[in-house]
Amino acid sequence: MRPSNEMMPFDEDIEQLYLFRFFIVDLCSCLAQEYEKLKQREKNVLRVYRGVNLSSEEFEKLKENEGKLISTNGFLSTSRSREVALHFAGESAKHRDEVGVLFEIECDLSELHDAITVADIAHFSNFADEEEVLFDLGATFEIHSVHRRESNVSVVEMVATGIGRETAQAYIALNRKELKESSLAVMFDTLLCDMGQYDKSQTYFETLLRNPGVEDLAHIQVSLGRTHEGKAEYAKALELYECAYEIMMSTRPPRVKESVSVLNNIANVYAHKCENDRALEYYERSLMIREKCLPADHPDIGASLNNIGLGYSRKGEYDRALEYYKRSLKITEKCLPADHPHMPSSLNNIGGVYVDEGKYDRALEYYERSLKIREKCLPADHPDIGASLNNIGLGYSRKGEYDRALEYHERSLKITQKCLPADHPDIASNLNNVGLVYSRKGEYDRALEYYERSLRITQKCLPADHPHTADSLNNIGSAYSDKGEYDRALEYYERSLKITQKCLPADHPDIASNLNNVGLVYSRKGEYGRALEYYERSLRITQKCLPADHPHTADSLNNIGSAYSDKGEYDRALEYYERSLKIREKCLPADHPHTADSLNNIGGVYVDKGEYNRALEYYERSLKIREKCLPTDHPDIGTSLNNVGLGYSSKGEYD
């Protein structure tokens, strides 16, 4: 048995699970039949027992989970006889590092109904006197107490609960359409990938590929493609998706409707590679087929519009993105119930665009609508609720409301730790977000603690050269840079850069971002020539892979301007700052915080040049924007007020 956030039972040998799959299905079916008989006979609460020896470490973990849920790591054998269970627990543990444990389990069949399956199997056993009672896969229990009652045996009191079944049903409801059209093998892949168990998924489907039997070859290739996509092995994923597409289209008649999902998968890979135009090409092909085959207000058309919106959002074309997201939302609002689980995805994406545009209050409005729906239609500890809480945290973090941000990020982290395996990538992502808030608060040691926990998870559950590992290394580098430990920062930034250069295309924006970070450290070290070298390499990449007026291009220009300003080359600095400002004024809302940053930087150069009236003009424009778009106690407003004051002071206007 194990705490429920470690899931079940996929830590076992996947090949063995595959070989015994028919036996497992058969056994589950027999248990269900026996359970119906048990319900007829057992009118009162069923009490059963299980005796085991646990290692001290396992027992301590059990105590830590008192009051929480625990799920079985397979079928659970228990006994009606307390004495039999005590015998297995042992009056004294055989080894010093072992603890004898008696599980006392209460199961109220009148309340549980079909939320759990349990059967009396004593009459099938060669040891009828053991009075064996068997629980089906995934039985879930709440740990009420852990205490020492007998001389050398600790007692764990538990109550059977239907929460595990409810969570499974919510998962199936959320994926009902996909699961309905899929084979059991594909459903299994979906679950493994959602759990982040990519290596196990790969093992399972490579076994199936060698012996497909009645399974559809295209479906197996799609499943393997998903696995490689999750591992950031994009070339292999693309190869598998394209093979699957060829198979579907070469049949007679072609499986056109079915091929749409594969086109979307291909588009997703191009999006990961930041080949946004290629991604949009495939998303639009997918939409074209769906518009031809389906009613105008079909949810799948909404999904395609949503994907196209994502493509434009990645290109920095936020108005186009919003147009598609809102068309998608309009369809989902028309054809699905108001609290349908698909609705929050559209709301979240719209919120994401408003964050990118610096419209944080609008973003939070959409994120909170998304959370409200998810809280209504999903279990309280569902991962999607954690995702919504995380988004709200990001919104507050961008607003500079760091304590509010932490509150939401920590609630999100608590849910993901409860309902996902301990080494799931989503937990690593949550830890990174908590670390980011501490970093923005200036608590760099706390930030490092979370970043390093995140790194340990990504190194454990993902390939060594996965982009998420690079993200964690990058964040650690950022914390060391902010602490002034520049050599440590460079060490982590360069490790991150090495991974991104290995696993991503040479002109990927993430490589540009890493180069920028290395440049920033050299700038802080006073090595402005080295800094400029990295900033300019970063700029060349962004100019190659992103639109000319993309916000990331403005960021690179801004950094180059900063280096020239630090070198005392003020006219060159102004040239780059003004190019950056021009892009930001074109592609961002007029009151975006980044526009205020550009104005502030230009003001600083004019101060250095002794042109105080020009400096004040830019400082006051920057202050005006910041007062409009940021909370009244945001540090950047304080900086602007200080700069305006310095401007007047430099002019001799002390009052």
From TrEMBL:
The keyword Cytoplasm applies. SMART domains: TPR. It is found in: Cytoplasm, Cytoskeleton. Residues 44-150 form the ADP ribosyltransferase domain. Gene3D superfamilies: Tetratricopeptide repeat domain, Toxin ADP-ribosyltransferase, Chain A, domain 1. The keyword Cytoplasm applies. Keywords: Cytoplasm, Cytoskeleton, Microtubule, Motor protein, TPR repeat. Oligomeric complex composed of two heavy chains and two light chains. PANTHER family: FUNGAL LIPASE-LIKE DOMAIN-CONTAINING PROTEIN, KINESIN LIGHT CHAIN. Belongs to the kinesin light chain family. This is Kinesin light chain. It comes from Didymodactylos carnosus.
